[in-house]
Amino acid sequence: MKDYLLKVENLTITLQDKEKELKIVDDISYLIRKNETLCMVGESGCGKTVSALSITRLLPSPLFNIHGKIFLEEKELSNLPLNELYKIRGKEIGFIFQEPLSSFNPVEKIGDQIAEVVKIHENLDKKIAKEMVYELLKHVGFKNPKLQYELYPHELSGGMRQRAMIAMSIILKPKLLIADEPTTALDVTIQAQVLNLIEKLKEEYGLSILFITHNLGIVAQIAQTVLVLYAGQVMEYSPVFELFKNPLHPYTIGLLDSVPSITKSYNFNKSIPGNPPEPSNIPSGCPFHPRCEKKMKICETKKPSLTKIDNRYVKCWLYSEGKNEHS
Amino acid sequence: MNILEVRNLSKHFYLRQGLFNKDKIIHKAVDNVSLNIEKNETFALVGESGCGKTTLARCILRLIDVDEGEIILDNVNITNIKGRKLFPFRKKMQIIFQDPNTSLNPRKTIYDILSEGILLHQIVTKKEVKNYIIEILRKVGISENSLYKFPHEFSGGQRQRIAIARAISLKPELIICDEAVSSLDVSIQAQIISLLMELKEQFKLSYLFIAHDLALVKNISDRVAIMFSGKIVETGKTKDVFSNPSHNYTQLLISSIPEPDPTLRKNFEKISNTCN
Fold first, then answer.
1. Residue B49 near chain A (CB below 8 Å)
2. How far apart are CA A284 and CA A289, in angstroms?
3. Complex ipTM, two decimals?
4. What 3-state DSSP class applies to A274?
């Protein structure tokens, strides 16, 4: 019995662009334990979604090249043939996408779309599948499942659509749930409801969750472990309490300072200057150095390696041992 | 001194339903709303999507006609002024939209985008336009080499800076920021907020800041109004509203904010029960 559920080792994803190969994700490794929530945070374009999609190889293959190893328990997903992978998608790994309106089929009833998952994977009778869906819809907060089974996606509100999406992703009790910004399009009160539902299901089903978000408030509320990404690289990988109490990487510090809060004062003048880099133009050395206030000479030329400090990892020359040798 | 006063404003939309569209349903997008914004003040308007925030903003700007009520800008009642006579008042209030990707014309250069309003309102003479634009761009942190670039050549944050430049180039007194920072990443959001606050001091601007992020509003606004299905349910000094929210909906909103502090984990169960 392994102590982890998902292990990603040295994942690198490149995008073929005309002549150049662009690095979208650069050598990231992490693992998710059983019944753990790992939050992936970072600004838009830092490779969060791409790295999550690569777990079940949902990226168009000649365009994206995936290197590295991905394990789901003992199974190595990264070299599994596609027909084996089909059995894992939706059954062992569930997906919740950001925009539920565009991820549902607009011309099919939501109930039928949820039932389709059961029909494909379990080869069950239509009637039994329908019963399963009724029960599940009720469980995720639909008051009148028999009636709401017959609705089309556009007839539901944003919050209800996201609930239907959650129902679809967990109907076969997957081990891992990948949630890609599931609450970004929702209002705060609805967001609280959806987060509550995800937490409740996590306890009930013993789910492990890979939660992608850019909202550090949500991270603080639900994560056990946090992976901070910048320009496709891991900047910091740490348990949530330590990260918020004592952020190590200058990028994490800047990010936490930029978040307005109702309990602490917000100093918007202290925010990180500049813009995140484009994948075609990632700075040499540490990708964050042009925006970093603690920049040293070595940061411009040499990429730091991931350094272990207690139970956390950080990629920065401030904490790297090799700092003195090179400078 | 008030720069803007809104008295009992209502805007209704009519939806037609049923066979041959016989049934008429009234949707009260803005329902009997009153507010006032003082000079050099940041007044925040908060509410969920669909509660009528943007409709109210469009009414105030006179982009759409109101059904009832009065809008008083700088002691002049502009509710019923139409057409050409409205022209001098347009200059006094400007808007920054949420999405700079769609609010900047993709086929115009930055120079064209900015010069149009400046020339129309005769802020400076034709000869001085270029220098004036360069000066404005410098104030918002865009270099002058960008003068003849197109909007798609900029990042989201820079585009929003250009939208701000367009708004301040007419020397307005009131700027309506309609979710101006919602679509930006937190680090860029902080940069834009910092810029807006700096410009506010420099030009003695007043802001009507429309947002749904309560934590942000708490930190930057002087007064706040909470809007719910077309009505303002609570209004007051930001400090007071947040420390002692009186309306149930305000309390619910404040308790739903995910705090960026893992030691203050919320019981979302409780919150979501009160929602239903």
1. yes
2. 9
3. 0.84
4. coil
Residue B271: which pLDDT band, with cuts at 50, 70 and 90? low
pTM: 0.89
A272 in B contact zone (CB under 8 Å): yes
Would you call A265 and B219 a contact, using CB atoms and an 8 Å cutoff?
Answer: yes
Instruction: Write down how long chain B is.
Output: 276
Q: Which residue of B has its CA nearest to A263?
A: B259
Residues from chain B contacting residue A269 (CB–CB below 8 Å)? 194
For residue A192, the tally of other CB atoms under 10 A from its CB is 28
Q: What is the pLDDT of residues B219-248, one digit of tens each?
A: 999 999 999 999 999 999 999 999 999 999
B169 half-sphere exposure, CB direction, 13 A CA radius: 33
Query: How far is Cα B226 from Cα B27, in angstroms, rounded to an integer?
Result: 19
Q: Token pair 């040798």 is at which residue?
A: A325
**Nearest by Cα to B207 from B33, B48, B47, B60:** B60
Q: Nearest residue on chain A to B47, judged by CA atoms?
A: A187
Please tell me the distance from the alpha carbon of residue B31 to that of residue A270, in angstroms, as a whole number: 40
A188-205 vs B248-256: helix axis angle to the nearest 10?
Answer: 50
Q: Do B258 and A240 touch (CB under 8 A)?
A: no
Q: Measured between beta carbons, which residues in chain B are less than 8 angstroms from residue A275? A: 155, 157-158, 188
* Residue A172, token pair as written in the block: 């076969």
Q: What is the mean pLDDT of chain A?
A: 90
A99 lies within 8 A of chain B by CB: no
Would you say residue B191 has pLDDT above 50?
yes
Q: What is the mean pLDDT of residues B102-120?
A: 93
pLDDT band per the 50, 70, 90 thresholds, residue A325: very low
Cα torsion A106, A111, A117, A123: sign: negative
Residues of A in contact with B48 (CB under 8 A): 187-189
Q: Inform me whether the pLDDT recorded for A78 exceeds 70.
A: yes
Q: Residue A286 has what pLDDT?
A: 92
Looking at the complex, report in whole angstroms how far the Cα of residue B64 sits from the nearest Cα belonging to chain A: 26
CA–CA gap between residue A150 and residue B158 (Å, rounded): 45
Helices (H), chain B: 53-60, 87-90, 100-103, 110-120, 129-139, 156-168, 186-203, 214-220, 238-243, 248-256, 268-275
Residue A261 has its nearest CB partner, among B185, B215, B252, at B215
Strand order, beta sheet including A307-309:
A93-96, A176-180, A208-213, A37-41, A225-230, A233-239, A312-314, A307-309
Q: Which residue of B has its CA nearest to A251?
A: B187
Contact A259 B260 (CB under 8 A): yes
Find which of B182, B186, B213, B244 to mutate to test the A interface (most A CBs within 10 Å of its CB).
B186
User: Which tens digits make up the pLDDT trace of B124-172?
Assistant: 999 999 999 999 999 999 988 989 999 999 988 899 999 999 999 999 9
- Find the radius of gyration of the CA atoms of chain B: 20
**pLDDT per position as a tens digit, B52-109:** 999 999 999 999 999 999 999 999 999 999 888 999 999 999 999 988 888 999 999 9
CB contact under 8 A, A200 and B252: no
Quote the pLDDT of residue A289. 93
User: Does B258 reach chain A within 8 Å, measured CB to CB?
Assistant: yes
The Cα angle at residue A66 between residues A62 and A72, in degrees rounded to 5 = 130
